[in-house]
Amino acid sequence: MTVGPMEIGLIVLVIVLLFGAKKLPELARSMGRSMRIFKSEVNEMREENNSAQQQGQIAASKKNDEDFWNSPEMQPRTSNPADGNQN
Fold first, then answer.
1. 85 compared with 70, residue with greater pLDDT
2. Pairs from 7-14 (Cβ < 8 Å, separation ≥ 24)
3. Composition bias, kind Polar residues: at what positions (predicted)?
4. How confident is the model at residue 51 (pLDDT cuts 50, 70, 90)?
């Protein structure tokens, strides 16, 4: 189902009749403001999401460092005192 020029003209006519010619510029201005606010909020959410992902990557790298230093290979070796006295 396509919307042709006749249907678009009818929709515009109905809008003009409902809101009046004086209210249309005010309506367009408020729609523009709303769109700017919406865009800024979307960009802010993207920035928060990106920073959260970066913090997650930093936390993951710290966890990898902890895993490395806590691994059994990196732990000090315990020796038996009786073994150290033998010559």
1. 70
2. none
3. 72-87
4. confident
Cα torsion 40, 43, 47, 49 to 10°: value is 120
Tell me, rounded to whole angstroms, the distance of Cα 68 from its chain centroid: 31
Tell me how far the alpha carbon of residue 37 is from its chain's centroid. Answer: 17
The amino acid occupying position 86 is Q
Q: How far apart are CA 57 and CA 63, in angstroms?
A: 10
Q: What is the rounded distance in angstroms from the CA atom of residue 86 to the CA atom of residue 50?
A: 61
Please state the domain extents for the chain.
33-66
Give 58-81 pLDDT, tens digit per residue. Answer: 666 666 777 777 777 777 777 666
Q: Is 35 helix (H, G, I), strand (E, B) or coil?
A: helix
> What's the whole-model pTM score?
0.42
**Residue position matching structure tokens 């990106």:** 50
